[in-house]
Amino acid sequence: MTRQIVAAQSGWGKSYAAQYLTVDQLEEFEFTIIADYKDEYRGLAKAGLAKWMGLGSEERSISADGWQRLIKDNPRLVVARAVGLADWRRWVATISRVAQGLPGDALVVIDEAHFVAPQETGYPEAVTELATTGRGNGVASMWITQRLQKLDETPLSQADSRLLGGFESDRDRSKIAGYIPYDVGIHEPGGQSDSLQRFKDPEGGLKGSEWIYSTTDGEKRRVDTREWEMDVPHFGGEAPSLSVPG
Ligand SMILES: Nc1ncnc2c1ncn2[C@@H]1O[C@H](COP(=O)(O)OP(=O)(O)OP(=O)(O)O)[C@@H](O)[C@H]1O
Ligand SMILES: [Mg+2]
Known about the structure:
This protein is α/β, with parallel strands linked by helices. It has one domain: P-loop containing nucleotide triphosphate hydrolases (Rossmann fold), CATH 3.40.50.300.
């Protein structure tokens, strides 16, 4: 895997799947950096597999050289966002460039990637480079999104593999239709008899979900993440339910 897309509608189990894939490949890379937009990957630190840090107002002033040193000292790093979107984008651009200069193979994982490489507005060249650079140059990347329609074409068109789940929105489905070598209808939950499904326990919690994994080499298979058991805890991204005053 060099450039991978993980996409599905909100709550389909993307971050769980992405964490599983990241853990599975940890040994393949000397460096793994997770750009954790919603603080969902701290389980890796809890399990002792990575170092966790927040990107707040102090950390945003760390230079590219500073990040390079930090990553060399902490080759598996989960960075949770505690800054606004503009600072987060700038930091992901810095990391994208730093990853290309590290002394070893690096994996950069970007959750909520549509905020970092949006369709409508421009974004830093370093992020485009990350999307177009392959393992041959020592950098692999994973782009995770719930809004395909908002993700720029570059990471999508450059991906050599895709893990795609269900999408209620036809605009999200039509965005992938041009890239996949099979009928997109399977990605519409409940849309046809073989549509991908989500599995819930009696309390309504997600137990896993179905996906289509496909590669540019022509591999294509249906995946059920109920079989993806992880020793590493995963912290879901759901916001705590808001209480209504009065
Ligand atoms: N295969 C699985 N086995 C057990 N639990 C799972 C599995 N897949 C997802 N979950 C759990 O379901 C919840 C939702 O999954 P997850 O956070 O990965 O969804 P998401 O698609 O990233 O959502 P969001 O769009 O809100 O970021 C989480 O609590 C997660 O731990
Ligand atoms: Mg998520």
